[in-house]
Amino acid sequence: MALILLIRHGHSTSNQNRVLSHDNNTYPLTEEGQNQAKKVAKELERVKVSKIYTSPILRAYQTASIIGNHLGIVPIVDERLRERFLGELNNTRFDPSDHWKIKLIRGQIEVRGLEPWEVMQKRMIEFVNSISGKDDGAIVAVSHYDPIRSIIGYILGLDDISAYGISLPNASITSLEIKEGNFKIHSIGSPILSKDALQRLYRYVEIANR
């Protein structure tokens, strides 16, 4: 059994400027993003966190570092949590009202080098399976919108476009419990761990309060 808390990185300069990027060392957290990371770190005190994993990309690594400093845990970089590889779209601006994913599915554009949904799902599932059942406490994994959305889509049986409407705000919490290969979703894109969610996760709350 394992509880994995998937955290989307805090607000970054790429969000601010509406830029798509999978680059490792560009687009840091904004001041707003740093404050978001501090708030989610405080929220994570409510459960016993045993390890923190993070995407190597700067905005995620900075988020994980803020959380880790607060909880006294050094984050572990895992490439499987990285941003979706964007191919030709890397470091381009996008218009939310005329989204590139809709254009893609309608055949209006072709993006060379874009990481397929199924490939992204596979690496995220491999990550989850590789850490499940290894620790008593909860596992925090800091990643990005599309990778987190892809594993939710896998659990719910949704493809890229069918999962289009899943909302994952910056520094939000998506909590998954895994038991014997079966997934249970306790929250999706939540700013906090709700009272009801914590009651369902009593085992991890009790560990935190020992």
Automatic annotation (TrEMBL):
Report the InterPro entries cross-referenced here.
Answer: dPGM_arch (IPR054929), His_Pase_superF_clade-1 (IPR013078), His_PPase_superfam (IPR029033), PGM_Phosphatase (IPR050275)
Query: Which Pfam family, any one of them, does this sequence belong to?
Result: His_Phos_1
**Could you say which residues bind substrate here?**
R8, H9, G10, H11, S12, T13, S14, N15, R59
Task: Supply the Gene3D superfamilies for this chain.
Answer: Phosphoglycerate mutase-like (3.40.50.1240)
- Provide any one GO MF term from the record: phosphatase activity
The active site lies at: H9 (tele-phosphohistidine intermediate), E83 (proton donor/acceptor)
Matching SMART domains:
PGAM
| GO CC, alphabetical | cytoplasm
Q: Which PANTHER family match?
A: BROAD-SPECIFICITY PHOSPHATASE YOR283W-RELATED, HISTIDINE PHOSPHATASE FAMILY PROTEIN-RELATED
| Name by which UniProt lists this protein | Phosphoglycerate mutase
